[in-house]
Write a structure and sequence with these properties.
Elements lengths: L2 E4 L2 E2 L2 E2 L1 H11 L5 E6 L4 H8 L4 E7 L2 H15 L3 H10 L2 H26 L2
Parallel strand pairs: 1-4, 4-5
Antiparallel strand pairs: 2-3
Length: 120
């Protein structure tokens, strides 16, 4: 599963927030690609390539290349689509509620059974 990180660039330089976002993205597991958009961002792209944990630096200098790079990143990441869907389903609200309700019912069932034993 790959993560696409959109870099923040200011005056041609990579912003410090990008490195902090990279730390968070790396915790998701899998490869992290960074996309740098704008003109004259060669210095930012070079700085990004030196950050630990970056699998690939993608550069887009206009709207068309931005769309192209996002499409490429999405296509490359489709290999892990089933795993991402399974992860999302396992951590969905309804899944968590179902798990919690099962635990409550299990606990209530155990308590009811324990109460019956005391009366015998």
């Amino acid at each position: 599963m790959a993560t696409l990180l959109f870099a923040e660039v200011s005056k041609g330089h990579l912003s410090d927030i990008t490195a902090r976002a990279l730390t968070a993205a790396a915790q998701l597991g899998g490869a992290v690609d960074v996309l740098i958009a704008g003109r004259d961002v060669g210095g930012a792209a070079e700085a990004a390539s030196k950050l630990a944990g970056i699998a690939r630096v993608r550069v887009a200098d206009d709207a068309t290349s931005f769309v192209t790079e996002v499409d490429r990143a999405l296509a490359a990441g489709s290999a892990g689509a089933e795993a991402r869907v399974a992860l999302a389903e396992a951590n969905s609200w309804s899944s968590r509620v179902s798990t919690l309700m099962g635990l409550i019912e299990q606990k209530l069932g155990s308590s009811a059974g324990a109460g019956n034993d005391e009366g015998s």
